[in-house]
Give the backbone structure.
Amino acid sequence: MIHLHTARFPEQIEAVRTIFREPAESFGVDLGFQQFDAELAGRPGKFAAPRGRVLLASNGASADPGGIVGCVAMRPIMRTMSFQRPLRTKTRRMSRSRDSRNRSCR
């Protein structure tokens, strides 16, 4: 059974770096243009608690480095959109016709 654990820093920093390097190395592409190495060196960085989290998935009940099978790093996402009330257009307003029982959209 897979268990999720919050990574403990600095104790598990090497396990986190290793689990992030494995897929990156398998891509066969230099990730230098994304500053991948600098991001790994700065872990947890923007993924640090209390706003972010690094979770480790392990095969056992403990989070020992030998049993780690996956990792996810979550960081805050900047809010870029603001909520606005939908605007009503003239064509969508309800209006009364001469007969008050008959309503139509214009």
Q: What stands out?
A: Residues 3-74 form one domain. The beta strands are 3-6, 53-58, 68-74, 94-96, 103-105. The first helix runs from residue 13 to 26.
